[in-house]
Specification:
- By secondary structure, this protein is mainly alpha-helical.
- Helix 2 crosses helix 5 and helix 3 runs antiparallel to helix 5.
Length: about 100
């Protein structure tokens, strides 16, 4: 169990993330993608599904692919913090569905 100092230390980065506009935009995008069932997966996720999803979404290969697409389309590449927010939002949506 966390003591008060450990809990406060863990809370500070979370609060900073919640103040970052790029993280919040990514979180919203992740929730929306989950609600729209972007990955076409209605089953309950287990630990290995979550780990696989995180590894895929923030992998170097995914970032490289997105940068290539952004260059080709003239779009601005999103910062990594946006992707972290997306992952958190998507997982929040998945875990919320599992609770229902």
């Amino acid at each position: 169990m966390l003591d008060q100092a450990q809990a406060q230390t863990a809370t500070t980065p979370t609060l900073l993330l919640l103040q970052d506009p790029s993280f919040l935009e990514g979180f919203t995008d992740g929730r929306l993608a989950c609600q729209e069932n972007a990955y076409g997966d209605d089953r309950q996720w287990d630990e290995s599904d979550i780990i696989r999803f995180i590894r895929k979404e923030i992998s170097f290969q995914m970032r490289k692919r997105e940068r290539s697409l952004d260059i080709a389309t003239g779009d601005e590449t999103l910062p990594i913090i946006h992707h972290v927010g997306f992952v958190m939002g998507y997982l929040d949506g998945v875990l919320s569905q599992d609770q229902q």
